[in-house]
Amino acid sequence: MKILVTGGLGYIGSHTVVELQNQGFEVVIIDNLSNASIEVLDGIEAITGKKPIFEKIDLREKQKVQDFFKKHGDVEGVIHFAASKAVGESVEKPLLYYENNIATLVYLLQELQKKESSSFIFSSSCTVYGQADQLPVSEDAPVKPAESPYGNTKQIGEEIISDVCRVTPQIKSIALRYFNPIGAHPSIEIGELPKGVPQNLVPFITQTGIGLRKQLAVFGADYPTADGTCIRDYIHVVDLAKAHVVALQRSLNDRNEGNFEVFNLGTGKGSSVLEVIQSFERVSGVKLNYEVVERRPGDVIRAYADTKKANEILGWKAETTLDEAIKSAWDWEQKIRN
Ligand code: UD1
What we know:
The protein is of the alpha/beta class.
């Protein structure tokens, strides 16, 4: 069965392609290589023994998207990762984000509407909840006004899919709201490859640990939490990737309730920034140079997932511990810098 993975050379995309191939799916990747490298294909092949089909396409080129579906008429499911994800950049360049994340979604759904049946799995984010009133955050927590154009594209994206599914019963869709993905594949053939200065905590920690950055800035230690730093739900990227395969299988087998569903993907456990630093120091044996600085605007205090719906309905559960996940990120960092 042929599955299209957009953004399949990116961080979460590549790990998902590995899990799909391990489960016997035939994968076609679309990527414009704007934030990914072609060598990732070799990493995927090294792990799975198989190179996926690759089409270098920019999804903003509508004609090319149409041509792709003519050529690959046998695609039965789409996992849509391709998107821009830098919060700060989205504030500076909102239209770039609306074009990259929304126009492309529309073009893909237009093609799926032409098919007799299809599955569509969408990369969403816990950012849609903002600072949730209740923790852990369940799927029926209200969606809060977005803090950034990036966050808005995830909310609007879900609304577009929901509207399309209402009138297109042959499209079965699932939006997966990720908490904080971290780590690398245990083979360390693939992992996170942030371009420039990393915006996210774990790549910044590992780059500081290896000496690429001088010091980690901890954004605020005066929050109302046990140690004063923010709490997040860090989920290993392989656990996350596996959830995509389970969600895809659910929708391909038509087991959805209605044709648009939403699931949180997290571990259910919250860790503070200082706990992540401690975990890094424990697994690496490296003392991390860090300093507490001002809060970062837009950060929520606490976010961790209620995993009940994903556990019960998808039959999926995150299995990797924080230490194991951080260790894999560290192993990866050491590999790519040597
Ligand atoms: C961020 C985005 C989120 C997006 C996700 C994509 C914000 C507010 N949220 O999540 O919308 O879906 O990235 O990857 O930007 N931290 C430091 N120092 C650093 C980096 C981070 O102290 O150099 C802290 C942050 O304050 C936060 C935690 O580490 O408490 C995690 O930060 P990060 O990895 O950027 O993820 P989120 O902010 O949760």
